[in-house]
Amino acid sequence: MTSKQEEAVRLAVGARRRYAGNMSKQTAALLEAFEALAPDEKRTFTAEFLRRAIPLDSGPLDDEETAHAADSLFALLDAEENDTAPR
Predict the structure, then answer these.
(1) pLDDT of residue 35
(2) pTM to 2 decimals?
(3) Residue 87 lies in a domain
(4) Average per-residue pLDDT for the chain
């Protein structure tokens, strides 16, 4: 891990970034470290992560679940767009 990545992990523990759902500080730190990666490293990491991820079939979504997921996503994106804090 580079010093830039280590710094991102260290800072992420106290980060106030908003993520969907309840997330542990450790998980938030992983996401912040991911954000510090170069684009090529992000693609490599994502491919490897998805390869290792356990397949999950929760069945079909009904319209209410889909609408709730869309509302949550748009609220998160709006909050990020309106966030004026320096990154």
Answers:
(1) 92
(2) 0.44
(3) no
(4) 80
Instruction: Please check whether residue 12 is in contact with residue 29, taking contact to mean a CB–CB distance below 8 angstroms.
Output: yes
Distance in angstroms (rounded) separating the CA atoms of residues 40 and 81: 25
pLDDT tens for each residue of 18-38: 666 788 889 888 999 999 999
State the total domains in the chain. 1
Could you count the other beta carbons within 10 Å of the beta carbon of residue 29? 19
- Total Cβ atoms within 10 A of residue 33: 20
81: helix, strand or coil: helix
Looking at 15-62, list the stretches that DSSP marks H as alpha helix, in order from N- to C-terminal side: 25-35, 39-52
